Amino acid sequence: MILEVLNREMEKLNINYSFMRYVCDVPRYPYFVGDYTENEFSPEDQLTSGDINIEGWSRNNVSELIAVKEILKRKFDEYSTVENGYAIMINYENGMVIDSGEADLYKVSIRLSFKEWKSN
Q1: Most exposed among 36, 44, 74, 115, judged by the fewest C-beta atoms under 10 Å?
Q2: CA-to-CA distance for 63 and 81, rounded, in angstroms?
Q3: Secondary structure in 3-state letters for 69-107
Q4: Which of the 8 DSSP states describes residue 43?
């Protein structure tokens, strides 16, 4: 459920986002690719917690990546929702600009934390 919620919220924000890999004939910059890690599971209350890692790429400039990072920072400042019997929390943790190794390719890394549990 966490991935569905994240994908929907990224669409609402009009952020060019894909899970795991960005596949297209001609890249539309900036684009963002995410993955996630489950850090903990509690069978007692069905709580799963973990991290969502999002990498952004641009050939235009680094400022557009930083602008999206700030949008995500505001959006996921204690974000929560209840859907289909699951309660979900997503929180912005940090972001950083990373050297891509190419002169005309810019990169940003953003980390969100999440908690998801059955609300029934």
Answers
A1: 44
A2: 30
A3: HHHHHHHCCCEEEEECCEEEEEEEEEEEEEECCCCCCEE
A4: T
Alpha carbon 5 to its chain's center: 10
Report the predicted TM-score, pTM, of the whole model to 2 decimal places. Answer: 0.89
Q: Residue 108, by phi and psi: left (phi above 0), alpha (psi -120 to 50) or beta? A: beta
DSSP E strand stretches across 10-85: 17-19, 31-42, 47-58, 79-83
Q: How many CA atoms lie within 13 A of 120 on its CB side?
A: 4
- DSSP class of residue 1? -
